[in-house]
């Protein structure tokens, strides 16, 4: 699995950031296409939204909300490191970012049902 | 040098997007709360200058951010670098911009 | 039969296409990983190649990969890294293996030069000595990174070096940052230019592997972040 030299908080934060970023980059075109449906006809978008009522789609959406939240919070952490003076509580920040992303994704799923 | 400007573009778009993503997350939770019908969404967005500007800027920044991000990932996991890679990711960014612009138009106009 | 106090040691033999060879080495108190390697070379197989000089953590020549992590071996105690008495000792990653535990450090030092990791004097010996205020911000930033011993542990730990062989790496960039904060240095603009871009500070992903593994507890990640911000500012004001 993860090699010993990579097994520390900063590297895990990097992995989360990279894979969430890749996931979002892949998802983005599809997201835009679906919203573009409304340009032709609002009912098309509606029938799509009905389809999204299903459980698997809801789960996938929660995943996407999580990706967006974790990429946002991880990104804020990077901007802090790169543009503000160094702080020694990096690990606390990483844990906070992970925890907050889970909370945001849960808020979504609780409201979705 | 192209690396420095790609970095600047990426971090600048990130700074622009940070508040917009927070807004977007709030919108998402609000939208699923109110049942998420097309009407519910469009009724609030259509003809609104605010949503048009906010999401227009969001799409622009996201296109730049995704293109520069993908550029780095590709250069690290493959041997593809240099001019042709820069052109390819610019094309990807442009596609995102067009698709996203169309989506914003669909929702706002 | 291995006794209770014998270490089971796998040591890399040969160049890149080599393999691990196992030795049994008696365990003793306060034994360092370098002691283990030296024992093998002195008593079990004199053809084993490795480097060391000072044995007290000053020269930076003894770094190896110990149980998967880059470490300075002269100050790494066996009990700390091998509670189960098993050691796997390999050459540093990200540098070409010459033989056994010795790697070719040329790339590492060449990049140090490419990052302009060299002081550029602005005065002669007839000028008065420059006053440096110890608690100024610049001096503190320089002081924070100045104890580097060139061991290349951070360089071996950095995945960006693996993925992008042109990347200057944490040590060279950390050195560049200390010089950018040296008010006596006269090469600031050229150096910033040398360390910007895809082969320089902007390639760093803030993994913090360098910081995690640096035996001197330096923080190259923070130094590189400083360079990124400086280059960002310089580029936007047309000074890069
Ligand atoms: S923080 Fe930067 S230099 Fe240090 S290991 Fe990570 S990528 Fe390499
Ligand atoms: S920064 Fe630390 S790990 Fe890197 S060469 Fe210097 S002392 Fe070694
Ligand atoms: S032998 Fe000099 S630092 Fe280890």
Biggest sheet details of chain B: none
What is the distance, rounded to the nearest whole angstrom, between the alpha carbons of the first and last residues of chain B?
A: 40 Å
Q: What does the radius of gyration of chain B come to?
A: 16 Å
Please, how many helices of chain A?
Answer: 4
CATH architecture verdict of chain B? Up-down Bundle
Count structural domains of chain B.
Answer: 1
Q: How would you sum up this structure, described in words?
A:
The complex is a heterotrimer of chains A (113), B (109) and C (240). Chain A is mainly alpha-helical. Chain A has helices at 9-40, 42-51, 55-83, 90-112. In chain A, α1 (9-40) packs across α2 and α1 (9-40) crosses α3. The longest helix of chain A has 32 residues, at 9-40. The radius of gyration of chain A is 17 Å and the shape is elongated. The longest helix of chain B is centred in the first third of the chain and has 32 residues, at 2-33. The relative contact order of chain B is 0.14. In chain B, α1 (2-33) packs across α3 (49-77) and α3 (49-77) packs antiparallel against α4 (82-108). Chain B starts with a helix and ends with a helix. With 109 residues, chain B is mostly helical. The radius of gyration of chain B is 16 Å and the shape is elongated. Chain C has 2 domains: 3-103, Ubiquitin-like (UB roll), CATH 3.10.20; 106-236, Fumarate Reductase Iron-sulfur Protein, Chain B, domain 2 (Orthogonal Bundle), CATH 1.10.1060.10. Chain C is 35% helix and 14% strand. In chain C, the strands form 2 sheets. In chain C, strands 2-1-5-3-4 form a 5-stranded mixed beta sheet. In chain C, β3 and β4 (69-72) form a beta hairpin. In chain C, α3 packs parallel to α7 (170-180), α7 packs antiparallel against α8 and α7 packs across α10 (220-236). The chains are: A mainly alpha (113), B mainly alpha (109), C alpha+beta (240). Bound molecules: iron/sulfur cluster (2 copies) and FE2/S2 (inorganic) cluster. One iron/sulfur cluster (SF4) is lined by residues 148-154, 170-171, 174, 214, 216, 218, 220 of chain C.
Blueprint (SSEs and pairs):
The complex is a heterotrimer of chains A (113), B (109) and C (240).
Chain A: H1 9-40, H2 42-51, H3 55-83, H4 90-112
Helix pairs in contact in A: 1-2, 1-3, 3-4
Chain B: H1 2-33, H2 38-45, H3 49-77, H4 82-108
Helix pairs in contact in B: 1-3, 3-4
Chain C: E1 6-13, E2 19-26, H1 33-44, E3 63-66, E4 69-72, H2 78-81, E5 86-90, E6 97-99, E7 102-103, H3 106-114, H4 137-145, H5 153-157, H6 159-163, H7 170-180, H8 188-195, H9 209-213, H10 220-236
Parallel strand pairs in C: 1-5
Antiparallel strand pairs in C: 1-2, 3-4, 3-5, 6-7
The complex binds iron/sulfur cluster (2 copies) and FE2/S2 (inorganic) cluster.
One iron/sulfur cluster is lined by residues 148-154, 170-171, 174, 214, 216, 218, 220 of chain C.
